[in-house]
Q: What sequence folds into this?
């Protein structure tokens, strides 16, 4: 960030805000109703991909999330440091020139659970995300972009000096 | 209660750039405290951004997202003054919501 964003404190939330918050929580609750065990991202739904986050290996996590495999593509640009001194906070971003992107996900191969984050990209949202992830040790980082129903990936090896998962 | 969410949403032409910073421990459930006891997992599962009645960005997170998460993205179709609603829910049933005006 170039400048420190102004905090948007809301010391006295309005009643409407509270009600809206409650409504969205209720909706999220509905989204968690168990449906058929289809891969989470196959359909545009609101469900949290519980099963995919539980998988240990990257291959299993990709399978649980998408139900298919990805092909490497130079249209997916993954930006991460060569060396991360602190594995607890590794800045990682991805951009792509692919069209009809519906989701972007990040996997860290040797973390206790490979899937780190998955972002839904609705129509009208630019297919690019920056975030900060934890990495347990030096390992391969994979970004997967789902575009027009197909999966495209980019990978990068990141050296981690101090692991980010404690213990 | 002060909001856990800090947002900056700036519009330039048709594109709105959003940066959000959330205060949350994002405990993995693998780290021990000073007494050697495991700190239970406590992390944001879902973070949602809505603008003009439409989801513009939804994040599903696991424990591998860093403490005090930061995320940046951009979307089209909003203008200065529009409201962006940001809400998160965590694995312990905690949640927070805030509304930011696009600048």
A:
């Amino acid at each position: 960030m170039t400048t420190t964003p102004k905090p948007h404190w809301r010391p006295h939330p309005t009643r409407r805000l509270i009600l809206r918050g409650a409504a969205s929580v209720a909706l999220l609750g509905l989204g968690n109703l168990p449906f058929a065990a289809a891969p989470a991202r196959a359909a545009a739904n609101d469900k949290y991909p519980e099963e995919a986050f539980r998988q240990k290996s990257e291959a299993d996590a990709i399978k649980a999330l998408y139900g298919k495999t990805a092909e490497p593509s130079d249209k997916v640009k993954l930006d991460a440091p060569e060396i991360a001194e602190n594995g607890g906070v590794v800045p990682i971003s991805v951009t792509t020139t692919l069209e009809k992107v519906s989701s972007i996900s990040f996997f860290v191969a040797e973390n206790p659970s490979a899937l780190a984050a998955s972002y839904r990209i609705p129509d009208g949202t630019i297919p690019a995300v920056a975030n900060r992830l934890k990495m347990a040790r030096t390992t391969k980082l994979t970004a997967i972009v789902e575009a027009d129903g197909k999966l495209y990936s980019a990978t990068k090896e990141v050296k981690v000096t101090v692991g980010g998962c404690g213990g | 209660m002060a909001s856990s969410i800090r947002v900056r949403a700036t519009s330039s032409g048709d594109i709105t750039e959003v940066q959000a910073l959330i205060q949350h421990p994002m405990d993995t459930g693998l780290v021990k405290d000073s007494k050697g006891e495991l700190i239970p997992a406590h992390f944001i599962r879902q973070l949602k951004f809505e603008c003009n009645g439409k989801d513009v960005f939804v994040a599903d997170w696991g424990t591998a997202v860093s403490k005090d998460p930061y995320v940046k993205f951009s979307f089209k179709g909003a203008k200065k003054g529009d409201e962006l609603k940001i809400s998160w829910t965590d694995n312990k049933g905690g949640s927070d919501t805030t509304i930011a005006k696009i600048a």
About this structure: Chain B has a mean pLDDT of 95. Chain B touches chain A through 48 residues (CB under 8 Å). Chain B is about 0% helix and 50% strand.
